[in-house]
């Protein structure tokens, strides 16, 4: 059997490696139009910033290594320019000398990846205009950044790579301006969580322009900035487009393979396309959201490796199936780690769920052990309590918690199940009631209706619509004087029982403290005194004040 793989980054090499582990009697040929293979695209910002010293560290394996280790024939600078699915052959062009030839296959794998998308603006051909996708891109940006003229840069795009590039260039002393056409950075987060990142960027000296598109790259021969929708010019010695990627589906379309609703190549759980003997894996292929089965496309190296392994297994006769993804992602931005898995609140509502929403502000470990606050936004389905998604922002301990949440959602956990997890505890690592456990407990209380939550956004919406609330600030008078929820009255928790007769038990009531715990205690007291509708403000006053900044 002869297997041809088109593409040699995460998915392509994983296909070949798994196929070889299973069988020695197959011929494996890999073609790639690039000169670099099996490289870490996610590491590019860190090479640009100098945290990775040598470019070779991003691409430690070359064709000789794969030949020796897996008896794979990897041919670089060789582009597959055509596929004949009926004759089961490909046409290959050597990009160095122009030679062309045909090669036959029994099974073909399209691991063609994704390509950077440049907006249709004038001036992108100018010197010092870069994309962020390949090893060549990394080398070009680093060469520019190492030069004496690198004083400022405009980054176009506020996703993972754009924010990582903003961080790394800032660390190098380069003034960064970031332009994002959407009204928030990180479109994969809810707006209230993304706003925290926006503020953090500003605190580190990054100028952020939201809801603005680049109209043109300015400058004569070389870029000297961009103009945006408002007509304003933003100066920059370089312009770096990190505005997204799209699946590379050209060959798939040429042979009539079906393209999915996401724009990526449609595959089944065996990674098979709709064309016989043709598979697709990695950033070119469509995945699906594990809890619902809906089509999903998330171009991540971790997913590409998984898909490639499954394709290699199936091709060699091993039983394997792709089980879907949650869109789990994580990245670092200055002092913060940001992570997300599953559905956001906005996505859950769009899909017809009635979501229970919690903002849980808790330290990752006891403050006396150096704990730092985590902001956890968790979403569960009110109908059955099943966890739908989680977003976390914090200085430490984020990676541990997001992986627990992702595992729980994968196996269909309900909010109540999180509290019963037997998680590791010792003061250097966690609190006795881990933030994951507390999240489950508070969400479950809301789902059951025993201790209801209300988000600052929902409270504001209902007040604007004319609903009347009693809002009780349970903190000290000093804290209340410093900042408080609009229209709140200050009744410290210790005084609540003695002053409860001053309140109307039939009026909807909201209790709050700084972050939620004391507010919940007050909520329980009022419930026990017969108050019929009592909410604890999700995330407390801290979360409310952040919302006010966002909407001001």
From TrEMBL:
Q: Which residues form the signal peptide?
A: none
Asked whether the keyword Membrane is assigned, the reply is: no
Q: Which Gene3D superfamilies match?
A: FAD/NAD(P)-binding domain, Rhodanese-like domain
Where are the coiled-coil regions? Answer: none
Q: Where is the Rhodanese domain?
A: 465-549
InterPro entries in UniProt: FAD-bd_OxRdtase, FAD/NAD-bd_sf, FAD/NAD-binding_dom, FAD/NAD-linked_Rdtase_dimer_sf, Pyr_nucl-diS_OxRdtase_dimer, Rhodanese-like_dom, Rhodanese-like_dom_sf
The cross-references to Pfam families, in alphabetical order and at most eight, read:
Pyr_redox_2, Pyr_redox_dim, Rhodanese
What's the protein here called?
NADPH-dependent 2,4-dienoyl-CoA reductase, sulfur reductase
Record organism: Salisediminibacterium halotolerans
């Amino acid at each position: 059997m002869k297997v041809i793989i088109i593409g040699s980054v995460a998915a392509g090499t994983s296909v070949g490696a798994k196929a070889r582990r299973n069988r020695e009697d197959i011929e494996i040929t890999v073609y790639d139009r690039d000169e670099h293979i099996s490289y870490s695209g996610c590491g590019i910002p860190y090479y640009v910033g100098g945290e990775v010293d040598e470019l070779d560290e991003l691409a430690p394996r070359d064709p000789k290594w794969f030949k020796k280790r897996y008896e794979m024939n990897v041919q670089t600078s060789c582009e597959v320019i055509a596929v004949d699915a009926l004759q089961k052959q490909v046409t290959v062009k050597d990009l160095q000398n122009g030679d062309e030839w045909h090669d036959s296959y029994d099974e073909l794998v399209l691991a063609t990846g994704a390509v950077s998308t440049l907006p249709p603006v004038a001036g992108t051909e100018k010197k010092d205009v870069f994309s962020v996708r390949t090893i060549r891109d990394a080398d070009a940006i680093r060469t520019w950044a190492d030069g004496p003229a690198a004083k400022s840069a405009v980054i176009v795009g506020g996703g993972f790579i754009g924010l990582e590039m903003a961080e790394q260039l800032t660390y190098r002393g380069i003034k960064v301006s970031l332009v994002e056409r959407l009204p928030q950075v990180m479109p994969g987060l809810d707006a209230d969580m993304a706003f925290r990142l926006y503020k953090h960027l500003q605190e580190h000296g990054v100028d952020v322009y939201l809801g603005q598109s680049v109209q043109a790259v300015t400058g004569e021969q070389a870029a000297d900035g961009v103009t945006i929708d408002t007509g304003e010019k933003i100066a920059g010695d370089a312009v770096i487009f990190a505005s997204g990627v799209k699946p590379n589906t050209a060959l798939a379309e040429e042979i009539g393979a079906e393209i999915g609703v996401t724009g990526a190549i449609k595959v089944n759980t065996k990674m098979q396309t709709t064309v016989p003997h043709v598979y697709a894996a990695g950033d070119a292929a469509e995945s699906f959201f594990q809890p619902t089965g809906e089509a999903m496309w998330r171009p991540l190296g971790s997913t590409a490796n998984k898909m490639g392994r499954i394709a290699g297994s199936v091709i060699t006769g091993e039983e394997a199936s792709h089980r879907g993804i949650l869109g789990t992602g994580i990245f670092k931005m200055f002092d913060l780690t940001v992570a997300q898995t599953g559905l956001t609140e906005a996505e859950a509502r769009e899909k017809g769920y009635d979501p229970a929403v919690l903002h849980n502000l808790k330290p990752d470990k006891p403050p006396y052990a150096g704990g730092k606050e985590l902001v956890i936004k968790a979403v569960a389905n009110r109908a059955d309590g099943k966890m739908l998604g989680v977003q976390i922002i914090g200085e430490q301990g984020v990676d541990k918690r997001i992986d627990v949440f992702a595992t729980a959602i994968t196996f269909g956990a309900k909010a109540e199940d999180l509290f019963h997890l037997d998680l590791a505890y010792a003061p250097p690592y966690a609190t006795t009631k881990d933030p994951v456990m507390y999240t489950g407990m508070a969400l479950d209380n809301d789902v059951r209706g025993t201790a209801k939550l209300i988000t600052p956004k929902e409270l504001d919406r209902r007040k604007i619509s004319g609903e009347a609330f009693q809002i009780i600030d349970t903190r000290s008078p000093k804290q209340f004087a410093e900042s408080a929820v609009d229209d709140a009255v200050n009744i410290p928790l210790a005084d609540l029982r003695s002053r409860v007769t001053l309140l109307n038990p039939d009026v909807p009531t909201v209790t709050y403290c700084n972050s939620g715990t004391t507010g919940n205690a007050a909520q329980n007291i009022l419930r026990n005194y017969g108050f019929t509708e009592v909410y604890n403000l999700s995330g407390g006053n801290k979360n409310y004040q952040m919302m006010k900044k966002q909407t001001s």
